[in-house]
Amino acid sequence: MKRDLLTFLLAGLLATSGAEAAVAENWPQFRGPQGDGHARVEGLPLKWSETENVRWKTPIHDSGWSSPVVWEDQVWMTTADAEGKRLYAVCVDRDLGTVVHDVLVFENERPQEIWGDTNGHASPTPVIEQGRIYVHFGAYGTACLNTATGQTLWTRRDLNCEHVIGPASSPILFRNLLILHVDGSDVQYVIALDKASGKTVWRTDRSADFGGVAERLRYAACTPTVAAAGGRHQLISPGARAIVAYHVLDGEELWSVRTTGHAVVPRPLAGAGLAFAVTAQYDPELVAIRLDGRGDVTESHVAWRRDEKDGAPAVPSFLLVEDLLYTIADKGVACCVEAKTGETVWRERLRGSYCASPLFAQGRIYATSTKGVTTVLGAGREFKVLAVNELDGTRVWASPAVCGKAVFLRTETHLYRFEEQSP
Fold this sequence. Notes:
By secondary structure, the chain is mainly β. The protein has one domain (26-418): YVTN repeat-like/Quinoprotein amine dehydrogenase (Methylamine Dehydrogenase, Chain H, 7 Propeller), CATH 2.130.10. Helices cover 5% and strands 41% of the residues. It has a 5-stranded mixed beta sheet with strand order 1-28-29-30-31, with no helix packed on it. The radius of gyration is 20 Å and the shape is globular. The mean pLDDT is 94.
């Protein structure tokens, strides 16, 4: 078994270097090439509206809060009917805005209940690479599709759990692995699949102490991230009652920080020797953790903490730009803090409430509210509003994607491509 795993991982290592450049030119996963919300491009539009700098606007049927992903000339997202019985993957031509593929991936006889209106049956963002897209609907199923034909290459429908609020955690790719969180109220584990076949490579059950904790307080909805630290790749993986780091290649638990929260949503970040993660959706706390620990590091490796009163976000993920961390809280409180110390640099209120995660590009921060108002800030130690862009009567939960000089924004009903238009 160990020899087979070593051979599998070696094959993935050899394939990685050639793929890295292609990934950087596209928007392959939730929050972009590195999963950090950074678009390393120039020429994005500063302003847009329903009539300004709109290259195209395409209706997307049914409902889904998954964010768009982009690879070369394709933009993909998922959607589902109102009851969650029919689950689709939709591909739009990047240049023309026309629908290329509309694939019914799964039919679902017994959809789980969706709690509230801030989630749906198609919230996890797909992950894409050359020739393949991996779509995930939580307990409803996971599938790999051929991007040229829309053909299903493999499926898994046995990763079952009770989501409580509906599926939300997005898959990620690392070398030959497709990595998923399965954090339900009934079962909690992290699993890595062979991306070529869908077969399990490793699975690690959550080790958090759930003693005396009601089942309804054991679920989470977070997407993990990978950080290189201490000569190893760590999978930073917040769940209910703990933030955990696993060795990404085999699932070994490396360190953990105990928490008292659940329903975690924001994707963690890593930088400056720290991991930044949120502990809960309700009464969230933002914590910075040193990455060189082993075992339970709750008392030894937490560098700083900020609570909801200090702008800790419950849903939107955050941005690390050089030595500053930027957060947008759900009710619109924007904060800039010193990444190493957690000290406040500035704190201001933006218009509206927020679920989408902010985007950083060319010295700007793009923050889109749930009503489709995008406030563009200047990144830095002074609070500066550069533009306020409004759309007509729409809702936005999905985070933006970037490719070339265009911003792709998904609303409740449409996918937009915004780009500077020549006079």
